[in-house]
Amino acid sequence: VNHLLGIKYLNENDLQLIFETADHFKEVINRPIKKVPSLRDVTIANIFFENSTRTKLSFELAQKRLSADVISFSSAQSSVKKGETLIDTVNNILSMKVDMVVMRHSSPGAAHFLSQNVKASIVNAGDGAHEHPTQALLDSFTIREKLGDVAGKKIVIVGDILHSRVALSNIFALQMQGAEVRVCGPKTLIPKYIDSLGVKVESDLRKALEWCDVANMLRIQNERLDVSYFPNTREYTQQFGLTSEILECLNKEIVIMHPGPINRGVEITTDVADGKHSVILDQVENGVAVRMAVIYLLASKIKN
Ligand code: CP
């Protein structure tokens, strides 16, 4: 398959191949010359229909480090605003001899839809509340780097699970590697299908943290929120906000993750986000190596 549409389409061997390839690229981008010529003959379009800082820049940098030609498109400044459809937009871009499309879109299934309707390799950079596969890959890569292995580890994902593509992709990736996953958050922000994924719900943050090796803190996805769902922000922070006081009461040290963007003082305090247990910026750093690996492996299939 020449696409990365979601973690659910991968298997354990795929993940290990991506991580081993990312290990190599992480070593490469820490050299004085950070660039390799691997993708000199590949052209990639990054098309973003939703806002992004980390994912967009990380994909661009990964592609440039691999020597690909890169064009970037933001729907807000494009002819989508004049009524052009997704397929017409992408087919026009592809007629400029583009090989691969990295897309973020607000509709769940948009990347899959595109893969069925255009002739290019598609990478899902986040489709609505569905999947964000490269985020889950870089999260697992970071856990593996910090704790040696993902298998057997206990990971709690805290926050707005209902609207989170990061949560769903992480659940698939972590379970595939033999980790145990729980979620913690207000009942209104936990999807009804969570049991069917084999994921337990813990409503008490302190108990969840006592249980876990890693806590992945998510922001509330206000842009996808029906206000009637939600406790107010102050109540949320009181019940589910991570503070240094809570961490100090634990009988152990845990790894703190967050995919970003952070709402400081809501789901996590500044001292925890910037503290010694936080790997938040390691996640961002690892994102470049992991995306290099994904693009390199997909491009190898295009070329062969
Ligand atoms: N983690 C993540 O996807 O961040 P961006 O929305 O800034 O890309």
TrEMBL record:
Its EC number is 2.1.3.2. The keyword Cytoplasm does not apply. One of its GO terms (biological process) is amino acid metabolic process. It catalyses: carbamoyl phosphate + L-aspartate = N-carbamoyl-L-aspartate + phosphate + H(+). PROSITE patterns: CARBAMOYLTRANSFERASE. Pathway: Pyrimidine metabolism; UMP biosynthesis via de novo pathway; (S)-dihydroorotate from bicarbonate: step 2/3. Pfam families: OTCace, OTCace_N. Coiled coil: none annotated. L-aspartate binds at residues 82, 165, 219. InterPro entries: Asp/Orn_carbamoyltranf_P-bd, Asp/Orn_carbamoylTrfase, Asp/Orn_carbamoylTrfase_sf, Asp_carbamoyltransf, Asp_carbamoyltransf_Asp/Orn-bd. Carbamoyl phosphate binds at residues 54-55, 104, 132, 135, 260-261. Catalyzes the condensation of carbamoyl phosphate and aspartate to form carbamoyl aspartate and inorganic phosphate, the committed step in the de novo pyrimidine nucleotide biosynthesis pathway. HAMAP family: Asp_carb_tr (MF_00001). This is Aspartate carbamoyltransferase. It comes from Flavobacterium indicum (strain DSM 17447 / CIP 109464 / GPTSA100-9). The gene is pyrB.
